[in-house]
Specification:
The protein is built from five helices and three strands. The chain has 139 residues and is α+β, with helices and mostly antiparallel strands.
Length: 139
């Protein structure tokens, strides 16, 4: 199984949620990420992807080139593959929240802690899906 993460989509989501928070705090200039922050965001995104890979361990390997990160998962043959779409969505959500928490570390550290706590729910759901197995078939 392969999980493909489009880095531009993740960064666009970061820009959107950081701008939203900036508007709510009346501090858009301080909180919102922009394309000018690309170098810093790239480093944080790489760290978030590695964090996800560790969560998917021992099933995953990570490769990244250009705008795409790929996580190749080698799942047991009895894994419930009907949950693959849910796993992909949770992984994307996990990376967005991890990246946003890293962004908030520089801006509003209490918000970063909140997002990390909320992201624990994604981590638990991912771990749960990874552990699902089909019942053995009787012959």
């Amino acid at each position: 199984m392969k999980i493909v993460i489009n880095k531009n989509d993740i960064v666009d989501k970061l820009h959107s949620i950081s701008a939203h928070l900036g508007n709510k705090l009346s501090a858009t200039e301080l909180v919102a990420s922009t394309s000018d922050d690309a170098t810093k965001i790239d480093i944080m995104l790489s760290a978030s992807l590695v964090e996800l890979m560790k969560l998917l361990s021992p099933y995953a390997t990570l490769s990244s080139s250009g705008n795409v990160a790929e996580l190749d998962l080698t799942m047991p043959v009895n894994w419930k593959s009907d949950r693959a779409a849910n796993l992909v969505a949770l992984c994307e959500n996990y990376v967005v929240h991890s990246l946003f928490a890293r962004w908030l570390d520089f801006i509003k550290s209490d918000g970063a802690a909140l997002y990390r706590t909320l992201n624990n729910e994604n981590a638990v759901a991912i771990s749960h899906i990874l552990a699902l197995r089909e019942k053995p078939q009787r012959n």
